[in-house]
Amino acid sequence: MSCDVVLIRHAESVPPSPGKPDDPERPLTAAGVAAAELLAHELAAMNPTAVVSSPYRRAVATVEPAARKAGLEVMTRWELREWDSGLEPTPDYAGHYERSWADPDFARPGAESLRQLTARAMAAVDRLAAEHDGGVVLVGSHGTFVSRLLAGVRPGIGWPFSRDMPMPAVHRLRWPHENYPAPKAARSDRS
């Protein structure tokens, strides 16, 4: 089982409103729409065999132009969603995120820890690689999701990397990654 996984952090979106939960329906800004259109040429040139996205509007809107160019539809998967940090939008989010990166097991009540997000991200990509063996899968998602997946396979990925990731951002991996080998197949003793 081997697959090229192209992780795409969504383009610039309308900021969340303080005092309200993060809205899965937040759209891209005009600049974000333009960036997604420009990125579509690069992504379609990778000859994707599938385009899969977080169901959040901003993630779908970022990969939809590439899917259209490649003649594919965007499939959505709940497990590719943004991190459930348990925080409402706040101007001082960076301090909260930095604390979570320093202690990946920390979780606010009813929320997901960053370690849990990493496990969710790795399992999601494992499933995609198994379903699209030999293919190239474009995966539209979010900055924290992409960062935590990369942290699971690359040493040195931390809060500064996540904080400074541009919108959009593209990271291509061969899956399974050399630092995260595929599970060994069960051995059969039948002759």
Automatic annotation (TrEMBL):
Protein name (Swiss-Prot/TrEMBL): Histidine phosphatase family protein
Top-level EC class as recorded in UniProt: hydrolase
Source species of the chain: Amycolatopsis coloradensis
Annotated keywords: Hydrolase
Lineage: Bacteria, Bacillati, Actinomycetota, Actinomycetes, Pseudonocardiales
Enzyme Commission identifier(s): 3.1.3.-
